[in-house]
Amino acid sequence: MEIRHSTFAHIILPGHDSITGFNKKWLTLLALSLGTMMVPINASITNVSLPTISVFFGVGLATAQWVLISYLITLLGFVLFFSRLGDFYGQERVYLAGLAGFVFTSLLCSLSPSIEALILFRGLQGLTAAMMISVSMALVRRSFPAPELGRALGIYAVAIAAGLALGPAIGGIVSSFMGWRAIFLVNLPVGILDFVFCFHVLKRSQRLIVKWDIPGTILQFVCLFLVVYSLNLVENGDFILAVITGALAIITFLGFVYQELRCQNPVLKLDLFRNHTFTAFTLSLHFNYICMYMMFFAVPFYLQKVLHLDSGTTGFVLTASPIIMMTVSPLSGMVADRFGSRAPAFLGSMVSALALLYMTQLNVNSSAWDVFFSLALLGLGAALFQSPTNRTLMSELPSEKAGVASGIIATTRNLGMVFAVCYAGLLIHLAISPDMMQSTHLAGQAAADLTSGLHLVVILGAILSVGMAFLSLVGLKNKKNTVVKYEKVAVEKTIEVEKKVLGTISSVIMVMGGNHHSK
């Protein structure tokens, strides 16, 4: 379906009889960003309401956190599967199917009669989110030329940051006035609008025969579940069963690696990680999302239980990081396009480390503004880091592997989120008992214990941020050789073009000379 024949396109661009390539790529980015934004919104929208949900159903933190984990684990477990499916079946078809399913499962979440049902429906919601997030970045890359890719991915990062920013704010405000069930209903109008938008804007690609790697997909999901479940058992103090499930996780991981190495069409091509730059930046991005999401998980408990803030104020404080990211990410993407990715990525890592170390100064008497400033500084570091890193990851692989690269980035991001919840929950429980965490407000030694747990979380984040800085320097020694190689290619292309131009001019001169003599 051509966009210029669409009534919807005329609504978007009134007065235009046709949509140019320039407008089409930006409309595609807008459509994808609008839908993709809902994925991080629903990854963070329950953070503010999680204390309320745990009290409503009468469950502890270890059980309530599965409302987050079930969403993230299915989101993560099927990202690579759907990214490969998109390469064959059509990335835009996978995206549209996921968007429709996301709206429906959001309705189911709002109607959950029990904590078990909510966890189940959140898992299904994560599955549909995986369909969207696995192919969206590949669709962006397909729409933009290389010189503009960093800027486009910077704007895409703004959508992710906006989702993280709007999630706590929406969750806090809606939960305060309408209850926690209403937080899932905000997806309905946005999802329906974006489905209509994407249906008209996204061009359908040709379908190819899908070559499945079912064993690899199953092993990946089982391994991930066992790892998360083992961490959850450690958090609950069930160490013997945790050792058993941990051993099973190692066995399934080895089975997954064996399957992928021998499979002709693996769900994850492990040879991609022979590229040292791609591997280093993938690992550093994973660390960054662990740092960010540990804060989004742990800070709401500190704000509500220690500082005794309501959910609305908590949501406002949590918007500090994403608001800064929305502002700075496009700029850092443009800087990366012009000067390269490593310098801003290194700077962002160090700013993140400083922000997290600063948060060790928070105590039971701190104010909401102290936390807001700390999170804003952390957001600055993340903004400087993420856009250049995404640009590097999408540029390191050839265009025919864009779908795989997009899936790996989404997997890296969501794996970081899953582990962040597990790590933060485990560290908090090292400082305070699960029974005390069920209290609405804490005071005295209990408040000090929870604050100590938060300190453990931010110290881990600072260590990971320093690791990000070192990883971002990988490949610097080869940077000069890489530049020389690209300059050589550019010179060869220029000489080739000049020869063609001179040949054309010579032909014109000969024709004109022939016409002159004929006269």
Describe the fold and architecture.
With 519 residues, the chain is mostly helical. Helices cover 81% and strands 0% of the residues. The longest helix has 40 residues, at 479-518.
Short description:
With about 525 residues, this protein is mainly α. Helix content is about 80%, strand content about 0%.
- Secondary structure tally: strands: 0
The amount of helix comes to over 70%
Number of helices: 21
Using only CA atoms, what is the Rg? 25 Å
Structural class: mainly alpha
Tell me, briefly, the overall form. globular
What's the oligomerization state?
Answer: single chain
Question: What percentage of amino acids are in beta strands?
Answer: under 5%
Name the helix and strand elements from N-terminus to C-terminus, one letter apiece: HHHHHHHHHHHHHHHHHHHHH
Question: What is the CA–CA distance across the termini?
Answer: 53 Å
Largest sheet: none
Average pLDDT metric = 76
Which segments are poorly predicted (pLDDT under 50) over 5 or more consecutive residues? 1-19, 476-502, 504-509, 515-519
